Protein: Beta-ketoadipate enol-lactone hydrolase
Organism: Litoreibacter arenae DSM 19593
Amino acid sequence: MSALLPHRRAGSGPVLVLVHGYLGGSAQWEAEIDLYSANYDVIAPDLPGFGAAADRPGCDRIEGFAQAVMDLLNQLGVDRFTLLGHSMGGMIVQEMAANHADRVERLVLYGTGPLGAMPDRFEPLDVSRQRLRDDGVPDTARRIGATWFLNGEEAPGFPAIRDIGAQASVQAALAALDAMASWDGRPALDRLTMPTLVLWGDSDRSYRWQQVESLWRNLTAGELAVIPGAAHAAHLEKPEIFHVILNGFLAECADRPAAC
């Protein structure tokens, strides 16, 4: 059996899995782990090649990331869980939910969409790939991380995102761009039948409204929540609103389990 994927875990109760995205890491969920561990068994993995798992080979397919997270949950003996995925992590949890719908109680798709190529992204993936080769990971993490916030590098949450992103290996950062470019989750959307929250900051420069709307409208049981005045890292930019929305979705299912 392979060694456990590095992860953070706290609390007890129903399992809530937090999956970070490109140039992210489990450390970005510090506030959410502190908050939700009061009522949930919170598990936040570091994806292969990122964060505390930077010494592991990165995946060049979203399916590979999804399998890595599933392997961790299996090794931890977790059977049923709620998934929250941010950005590329939203692609990963869509893949997990489509293939393991019987194990996913609820799904939160945050700052993400159904197509990895990300039409209308702040820059094409090919440009990110070339600039990563030219500039290296730390400068790329700084540059891309700044686009996650309305106030760029002046945002209070920016230093943490910059530093977390800089931990990634070059191999993993390049491979993940290939993973996103080749992934299309649209054919599997009809398999996402569990209650699903689509959560989006209205100034997100990675996923624009057209992609978010396409995701929301093609889900069987999808709800949409838009956070005003927030970009790609709404959980750091508008944490109070982010948590109120997420609390409402989680409580909805806790109060009406038969509906979830």
